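Dear colleagues,

As part of the handover before I leave the project, I'm documenting each prediction I ran so the next person doesn't have to rerun anything. This entry is a single chain, and its sequence is reproduced below.
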Amino acid sequence: MRHAVRAVVALCLLLTATVGCDVQARREIAAEKKATEKGPPPPERIAESCEVDGRPPRIGVVPINLQALFFNQINTGAKTVADAAGAHMQVVNGDDDSAKQADAIDNLVAGDYDAIIVDAVDTEGIKPAIRRAKAAGVPVVAVDATVDDPAVATQVGTANAEGGEQIAAELLEMSGGKGGIGVVGALNSTVQNERQKGFTDAVTAGGMKIETVVDGRNVQEQAQTAAENLLTGNPDLPYAYATGEPALIGLAAAVRSQERTDDIEVVGWDLSQQAVDGLREGWIAGVVQQNTFTFGHAAMNAAIDLACGRSAPADVPVPTQIVTPANVSDYLYYLEK
C-alpha cells in the first residue's frame, strides 16, 4: 500500500512540475511574441521634405554589405523615414569593398543625387570619394563607421571603443578577471578594430589575457573558418569575443560544431538568430546591441535636411544596450529586417 501511495505522490509531483513548466513556457512564448510584435522603435522625428529642381530629394545609401542583418536594419530605418517624408532612396551594395563604395559615391554624385549616406568599410580609404562629393555640392552622412574628415556633413553612430569596454566590464565581472580570451575580429574593418582595441585594453587591464586573435574579415563563412581554427588551436579556451555580427555568427557555429557550449562563454556584438539561441542556452553571456533602426532614422533625417539646404548636427550619438540571457526576449525585434 505504501508503495502505491508513494507512486501516486510521485506522479502528482511530476504532473505538477510538468504543468508548471508548461505554464512558464507559455508565458515566455507570449512575452517573446509581444516583444516581436511590438517591433523596433519608430522614428523620433520625420524630416520635412522639399523639392529639389522640381522633384523630391534623392538620397543614395551605400552600406558595407547586404548580408548582415545589421546593415539591412539601417537601410530599413532609413527607408521608413524616406517613405514618410516622400524622399527617393537608392541603395548601392558596398560588398565589403572600399573601392566599390568609392565608385558608388562617385556614381551617385554623377546621377544627381542630393545627399549620400555611407557606412564605410575603410574609413581612411573612403575619404577621397567623400571629398569629391562635397566639392560637387553633395553632402555626405557617415553612419556607423566614424569617418574623421571635415568633408563629412554629419556623423551618426556608436562609440565603438566604449562599447568594447562596456562588454569587457561584463566579462570581467563574470570571470573575476581571470582566464584567457580568444578574439574573432575583422581586421579589414575600422569599426571592429576600434571595438577590439577598447575590449582588449579593458580586459588586459583587469587581469585577463588575449590568447589569440583570428580574422573573419566581416564575412560569416570566413569568420566560422577562423573561429574553428581558434577553438581547435586552443582546446581549453574559457572565453571568446566576437567584434561584429558575422564574427559572432561564425563563432557560434564553430562552438556548436566542436560541441563546446558547456565549456566556453562568449560575448560579442550584434544580435542574430544564432546569437539569440546562444543567449537562451546561456553560453553566450552578453551581446552589445546597437540601435540599428535608429541609425537609419537619424542618418536619413540628416540627409533630407542637408539635401533641402537646412543644417544638420555634426554628430548624432546613438546609444547601445547589453543584451543578456535575462533580457533577450525584450530585443527580438532585432531579428527582423
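The chain has ten helices and twelve strands. The domain at 160-290 is CATH 3.40.50.2300 (Rossmann fold).

All the best with the project,
I.
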